[in-house]
């Protein structure tokens, strides 16, 4: 009932907003005048986020241009107005205009570079703010490797999942699709996925931790930002390889939107509605909604999704704004363990068809997610800006189906187990930071200082499974992965009785400061430090049968673990010219450890050190850009099972007793080359090489093996995208595109350890593969049709999660998108 009421409430808001838009638009047309205009740069590119100020009789009306450089003022009282257009680094444009009742005035403006700022902004004229860096520092001034995937690339590639998007950044890849219900991403030998709160703080939305258990909705994304390497100085405990920050589409003060329908192979269809506009001169809204129904290339696998995202923006004046957003997602999908492995999870065979489904026919995975967020920005003066944001996210995951299929014989025979799971995660996050620009003598400072807090509480249910006759279920049935017809499969659903609920709270907090010090025009020093406090609070386990809670310290109850860590970042940037930048930097991150040492003490955090050098260059006034980075990442405190107990004689057989005696080293290079030569033509390309392996391990029983490459880390990745739009009379509106992704050789399964009981290697070697997508589209006025033939060469390969989720990549498929601009 609660869920139904929530849906009704959301759709009620949607109806009210659409009605207000209709009424307001009609009223505006009847009574007021309209001013509409476009602002472009000197190279005729749309100028986004330009401030447009309208003045009359001491009253100011304010707006900004959208991503197409367009601005609109509606329902204006007739009279004489002064129009002012301004953007830092450009000459201010001023013009007197006359508004007549019921008339629409069309204007166009071209920004001219301010001579005072010319050297600073040639490259940055159309560069957007990189939100993941929590500042407006241009990318060329940052001594780190970044990547942005724009909404244009997302739309042109007809991307549906986050995994389709992040591959556009050199060195970033989609590593796993665990049971087909969530994704894992990797870079520089490290992987991230599922939860951005409790799971390491590496996935964010609008700068706040975000749980992606239901897979993020691509239709709501304006862009996706990635920082590669360590970002602990800004975000605390996070991956040593990358962080991902998704940027939502925001409300706008001009009426518009779109309706699109995506249809694909295997009966896939997905309508998407996007509507935005002003409610009054201060308040604007945006509503995004989508519905998805998809039958997979995998037998019996299907997914069903509903998503609604209403948001409001309120401008208190020219210098402050508040954005409030609500998201609702319901996703139901078939959990899919893939084709399986033979010989106890060590042999991958192509003898199993890509489409074969190995789970029980009634398996399900349901995700219900609510997210509420608010962000506030206040421009205090021309030097200081304050930003604050907060979010609450509720994620309910309920699943039932077969468990791991990793014990099949060489002939494919396995006793199929069942697994019932249910968890609720509640994430609360808040942050505030101050950004400023000051001068001390001849030295300029661009600094930020802030604090953040995240609380994550997870409730995990454990179940006992029973057959229809009341006996405990050990295995469900027997199947043959190679020959499904050999055995008759069960179809009944065994009873699952909740046995216990485990409550696991955790807290993350930190304060940080960073400063970009411009010593002179060529030399800049970047320095930052963060103090992090992280606490995994004592877990509790409640018994459903007895209604009791075991005492603290009872087996299975994890004790409270506290971490207090300083994370520094330092870099030197040298810019011999306005469009060339070279840097060298050091940063570290940290990961928390489970278990205790041989004396029973909790393990401290493992500190990961990163060293990086790089170069960023641009040509043709920013139309061409290239970057390269080389790095080494060393985790010299890798926790692994201790060889002996405290006496130094007795061999340790307890996997919970560990020592910080291992090390991993990750070396690599990343290259990117992008071009946006005109409105007609752009390309994005990149290549990355990485080698992460165990180094300087103890070599005793339970330790990893020196020199062995870590699993889930491709040696090489490459990406390439090119799109061209014809604008002459004969082919006007025709768009052609080609996108390719290369994933190099890598290892699945588990890394080997000294003295392991398994005979032979636990690794599963995986070959490299390339997918190529061919796109073609046509646009006429407000209508467009776009087609994509994905995996053009019908490549077959696999994504492996450990050794129990073996997902074949999708075969050749056709996608068609019809879009109507409102």
**Using DSSP, what is the number of strands?**
44
Task: Assign an overall shape.
Answer: globular
Rg for CA atoms: 28 Å
End-to-end separation: 35 Å
Count of individual helical segments: 5
| Mean pLDDT score | 87
The share of residues in helices is under 10%
Query: Spans of 5+ residues with little confidence (pLDDT < 50)?
Result: 6-30, 115-128, 552-556
Biggest sheet overview: 22 strands, antiparallel, barrel
By helix and strand content, what is the structural category? mainly beta
| Share of β-strand residues | over 45%
Characteristics of this structure?
single chain, 822 residues, mainly beta, 22-stranded antiparallel beta barrel, five-stranded mixed β-sheet, 44 strands, 6% helix
Could you give a quick summary of the protein structure above?
This protein is mostly beta strands. A hairpin with a 6-residue loop joins β5 (79-86) and β6 (93-99).
Commentary on this structure:
By secondary structure, this protein is mainly β. Helices cover 6% and strands 54% of the residues. It has 5 helices and 44 strands. The strands form 8 sheets. It has a 22-stranded antiparallel β-barrel. A hairpin with a 4-residue loop joins β21 and β22 (384-402). The two termini are 35 Å apart.
């Amino acid at each position: 009932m609660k869920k139904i009421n929530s849906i009704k409430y959301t759709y009620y808001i949607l109806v009210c907003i659409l009605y207000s838009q209709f009424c307001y638009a009609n009223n505006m047309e009847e009574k007021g005048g309209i001013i509409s205009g476009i602002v472009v740069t000197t190279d005729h590119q749309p100028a986004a986020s330009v401030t447009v100020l309208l003045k009359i009789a001491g009253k100011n009306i304010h707006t900004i241009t959208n991503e197409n450089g367009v601005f609109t003022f509606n329902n204006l009282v007739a009279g004489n107005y002064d129009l002012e257009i301004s953007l830092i680094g450009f000459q201010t444009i001023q013009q007197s205009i006359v508004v007549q009742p019921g008339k629409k005035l069309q204007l166009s403006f071209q920004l001219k570079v301010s001579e005072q700022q010319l050297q600073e902004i040639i490259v940055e004229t159309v560069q957007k703010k990189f939100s993941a860096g929590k500042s407006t520092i241009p990318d060329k001034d940052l001594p780190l490797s970044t990547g942005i995937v724009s909404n244009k690339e997302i739309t042109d590639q007809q991307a549906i999942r986050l995994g389709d998007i992040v591959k556009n950044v050199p060195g970033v890849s989609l590593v796993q699709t665990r049971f087909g219900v969530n994704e894992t991403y990797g870079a520089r030998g490290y992987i991230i996925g599922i939860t951005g709160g409790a799971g390491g703080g590496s996935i964010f939305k609008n700068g706040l931790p975000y749980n992606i258990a239901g897979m993020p909705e691509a239709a709501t994304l304006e862009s996706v930002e990635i920082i590669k390497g360590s970002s602990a100085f800004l975000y605390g405990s996070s991956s040593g390889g990358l962080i991902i920050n998704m940027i939502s589409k925001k409300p706008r003060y001009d009426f518009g939107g779109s309706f699109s329908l995506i249809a694909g192979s295997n009966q896939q269809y997905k309508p998407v509605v996007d509507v935005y506009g002003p409610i009054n001169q201060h308040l604007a809204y945006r509503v995004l909604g989508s519905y998805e129904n998809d039958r997979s290339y995998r037998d019996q696998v299907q997914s069903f999704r509903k998503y609604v995202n209403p948001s409001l923006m309120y401008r208190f004046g020219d210098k402050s704004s508040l954005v409030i957003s609500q998201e609702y997602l319901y996703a139901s999908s078939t959990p899919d363990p893939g084709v399986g492995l033979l010989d106890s999870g060590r042999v991958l065979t192509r003898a199993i068809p890509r489409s074969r489904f190995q789970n029980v026919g009634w398996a399900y995975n349901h995700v219900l997610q609510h997210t509420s967020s608010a962000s506030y920005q206040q421009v205090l003066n021309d030097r200081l800006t304050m930003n604050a944001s907060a979010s609450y996210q509720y994620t309910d995951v309920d699943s039932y189906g077969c468990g791991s299929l990793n014990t099949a014989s060489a002939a494919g025979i396995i006793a199929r187990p069942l697994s019932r799971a249910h968890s609720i995660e509640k994430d609360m996050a808040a942050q505030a930071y101050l950004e400023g620009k000051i001068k001390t003598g001849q030295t300029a400072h661009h600094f930020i200082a802030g604090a953040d807090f995240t609380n994550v509480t997870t409730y995990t249910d454990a179940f006992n499974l029973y057959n229809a006759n009341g006996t405990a279920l050990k295995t469900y049935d027997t199947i043959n992965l190679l020959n499904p017809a050999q055995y008759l499969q069960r179809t009944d659903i065994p009873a699952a009785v909740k046995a216990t609920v485990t409550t696991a709270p955790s807290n993350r907090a930190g304060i940080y400061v960073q400063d970009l010090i411009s010593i002179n025009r060529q030399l800049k020093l970047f320095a930052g430090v963060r103090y992090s406090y992280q606490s995994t609070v004592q877990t509790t386990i409640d018994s459903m049968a007895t209604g009791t809670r075991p005492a603290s310290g009872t087996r299975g109850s994890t004790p409270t673990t506290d971490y207090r860590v300083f994370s520094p970042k330092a870099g030197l940037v040298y810019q011999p010219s306005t469009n060339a930048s070279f840097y060298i930097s050091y940063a570290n991150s940290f990961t928390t450890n489970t278990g205790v040492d041989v004396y029973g003490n909790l393990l401290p955090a493992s500190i990961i050190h990163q060293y990086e050098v790089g170069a960023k260059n641009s040509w043709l006034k920013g139309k061409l850009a290239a970057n390269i980075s080389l790095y080494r990442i060393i985790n010299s405190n890798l926790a692994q099972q201790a060889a002996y107990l405290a006496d130094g004689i007795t061999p340790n057989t307890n996997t919970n007793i560990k020592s910080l005696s291992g090390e991993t080293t990750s070396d690599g290079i990343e290259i990117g080359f992008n071009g946006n030569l005109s409105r007609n033509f752009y390309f994005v390309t990149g290549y990355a090489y990485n080698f992460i392996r165990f180094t300087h391990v103890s070599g005793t029983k339970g330790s990893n093996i020196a020199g062995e490459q870590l699993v889930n880390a491709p040696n090489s990745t490459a990406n390439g995208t090119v799109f061209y739009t014809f604008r002459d009379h004969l082919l006007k509106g025709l768009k052609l595109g080609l996108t390719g992704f290369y994933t190099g050789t890598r290892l699945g399964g588990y890394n080997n350890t000294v003295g392991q009981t398994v005979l032979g290697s636990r690794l599963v070697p995986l070959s490299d593969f390339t997918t190529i997508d061919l796109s073609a589209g046509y646009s006429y006025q407000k209508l467009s049709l776009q087609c994509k033939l994905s995996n053009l060469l019908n490549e077959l390969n696999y994504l492996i999660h450990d050794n129990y989720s073996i997902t074949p990549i999708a075969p050749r498929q056709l996608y068609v998108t019809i879009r109507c601009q409102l």
